[in-house]
Amino acid sequence: MPARRLQGVKSSPVRDLLALTLRPEVISFAGGLPAPELFDMDGWQASFAKAADDRRNLQYGPTEGDALLRTLIAERMTRRGLPTSQGDLLITTGSQQALTLVTTALVEPGDVVAVEEPTYLAALQCFQMAGARLVPVASDEQGMIPAALAEVIARDRPTLVYVVSTFANPSGRTLPAPRRQEIATLAAEHDMWVVEDDPYGELRYEGDPVPPLASYGDRVLYLGSLSKIGAPGVRLGWLRAPNTLLPTVVIAKQAADLQTSTIDQAAAAAYLSNTDLDAHVAMLCAAYRERRDTMLTELPTTVPEGTTWTHPDGGMFVWLRLPGEVDTADILKKALTHNVAFVPGPPFFATNPDPATFRMSFTTNTPEDITEGMRRLRITFS
Amino acid sequence: MPARRLQGVKSSPVRDLLALTLRPEVISFAGGLPAPELFDMDGWQASFAKAADDRRNLQYGPTEGDALLRTLIAERMTRRGLPTSQGDLLITTGSQQALTLVTTALVEPGDVVAVEEPTYLAALQCFQMAGARLVPVASDEQGMIPAALAEVIARDRPTLVYVVSTFANPSGRTLPAPRRQEIATLAAEHDMWVVEDDPYGELRYEGDPVPPLASYGDRVLYLGSLSKIGAPGVRLGWLRAPNTLLPTVVIAKQAADLQTSTIDQAAAAAYLSNTDLDAHVAMLCAAYRERRDTMLTELPTTVPEGTTWTHPDGGMFVWLRLPGEVDTADILKKALTHNVAFVPGPPFFATNPDPATFRMSFTTNTPEDITEGMRRLRITFS
């Protein structure tokens, strides 16, 4: 009865697992949730009070988004190394919506979308719903391999390439600058779009920042988000796109929801105006660094010998692979009996799921809860 | 470069005209905007203050929506004659998003969607972007004619039928109860879905309420909204759908934006809990009735002899047709030189635009401004 292309699309296991995290006795490493105790409650309360004090913020507004918010985000992106003006931006209901709108604007059923394996599963869902054919591009510890992308381009002529460039979900990996340059050049040479999804880029715990992929060429569409550095419940993301494409995406946005919440946008503009977000991000990074280190320190004595995992320089996730022929979905069921959770890896694969993989998030729980959760995992694996 | 099906889709003229309404010297009857001076500022301020006081409202939440908000909306719909439980509802970013998600879930490229002519133009946009073939169904002063729908069903096998059942945009017409019954019966007999879009239903200024079309059969998907009775900037709508379809739409919602703003949903739940919305709607109806009457009283001495128009029992719009061979787009240009605006009718037609038609909204302006705007229109037409 539903449209044919939706019949194979499954509900996101991560979203379904959110139900489990509501059981207070479970320590969940599953969802990609920021730590709620680190939200800047005072800052957001003041910002929403200010926004709700102006009746224009309860009215319809422009599809492109609040002018002040776009200006403030453009300034922030420019400071971070990606020169941007207000007119380059569309405000979206989270960066997830930016991804869906770009897909709506660019991808016809049957078009090829090139992705890393593993990659963000809600992106895979989005491309599948658009009827895209997903083609994996080989990657290593440094992310997508440009030579492999060149092969895929020659063979499959992708319409777009999707990359979580920095502290990727789920792998935690970061694409180094030379690869960014190569990928941007390939896109320009082959009249193809790259979507750079960058919700985690500001959450760096060690090493030096790498310029955004979008700074290497104008065939790169940049997706940004306040969810991980501000608050995800406010649902604010943005698309930075050249003016050859942005008006088309704005039309897709009109049809999708007319516009993102006027009051949320006004509150975010007030927040960016009146708060030192850099200081808040520095606080988040200090806290998350400790949580990452706690998890990485516990891992060698927690998981079976022969397990491999990534060492993320930032972001939210560690990606692991167990030795031997195991299914992490079975292990999750056992883990839940010990009141601890993670996400099995298979849904993050576009084509060839590896059932021995899984993802652990280290941001949601305090160091103490991480230690206790790892103790429960140790029992699970014993 | 953009996807082929988007190349023919134009930006909404109504949205584009919003830019004009920002010029303070223009009295605009163009946009479908509620009156901002009637927003319940105290109620929304208190509701956002309450919502922003709980850090859970800054976190991610369930895709289906806030449980309390769904319960409160279900209770309100049940009181209005459509028995509904929380589990029947998906909260969306305005009812526009509900329409897009239903289209994503049900309509394949090439599928037929049956619509009235004229009808809500952003719905036409949404169906066009999905690659649907639009087939008009004849209508009269009482809206869609069931016998004409039966013919379309026999000939074109539509996947869905779209109806703004009460105080339609743009015509202002309301489908009477016997036609609702017939249309719901046709849908059930032919395994077809009806989308009942009902953002205006509570804004009744005369006559008796008609039960929702969805109360006549379970093949009717109901779209509701707080935009016209609460505040559009909060962007909250909902879909009521049977459990054979709702989970599929929830998956489409996950891919679209994960979820609607947690804090907006919490604020709306607080607003519905702590405010007498029925009393607020009664106040709105009294104010809008006066505005409608002001416009209808002025019309005979404003527009050329031979002009016809609808007499809406509620909602926001009067729909007009000028005599002779005229193009209302040309007249709009002249009207703008007199600092008054309306929307030309052609974009509201799926197939055969009538250039002599136009739409006037009577809710946004005070009676005094309506009188002045009609004076300017009189000069335009003189």
What does this structure look like?
Two copies of one chain form a homodimer. In chain A, helix 3 packs across helix 9. Chain A folds into two domains: 4-39 and 278-381, Aspartate Aminotransferase, domain 1 (Alpha-Beta Complex), CATH 3.90.1150; 41-275, Aspartate Aminotransferase, domain 2, CATH 3.40.640. Chain A has twelve helices and 15 strands. Chain A is of the alpha/beta class and 382 residues long.
- Counting helices, strands and paired strands, the structural category of chain A is alpha/beta
- List the domain count of chain A as a whole number: 2
Question: CATH topology of the largest domain in chain A, which one?
Answer: Aspartate Aminotransferase, domain 2
Listing every helix as H and every strand as E from the N terminus to the C terminus, the arrangement of chain A reads HEHHEHEHEEEHEHEEEHHHEEHEEEH
> Strands of the largest sheet of chain A, in order across it?
2-10-9-8-7-3-4
The portion of residues assigned to helices of chain A is 25-40%
Low-confidence stretches of chain A: none
At CATH level 2, the architecture of the largest domain in chain A is 3-Layer(aba) Sandwich
Keywords:
homodimer, 382 residues, Aspartate Aminotransferase, domain 2, 2 domains, 7-stranded mixed β-sheet, 4-stranded antiparallel β-sheet, 12 helices, 15 strands, globular
List the helices and strands and how they pair.
The structure is a homodimer of 382-residue chains.
Chain A: H1 13-21, E1 27-28, H2 41-51, H3 67-79, E2 89-92, H4 94-106, E3 112-116, H5 121-129, E4 133-137, E5 139-140, E6 143-144, H6 146-156, E7 160-164, H7 177-189, E8 193-197, E9 220-225, E10 237-240, H8 246-257, H9 262-274, H10 277-298, E11 308-309, E12 317-321, H11 328-337, E13 340-341, E14 343-344, E15 357-361, H12 367-381
Parallel strand pairs in A: 1-13, 3-4, 3-7, 7-8, 8-9
Antiparallel strand pairs in A: 2-10, 5-6, 9-10, 11-12, 12-15, 14-15
Helix pairs in contact in A: 2-9, 3-9, 4-5, 4-8, 10-12
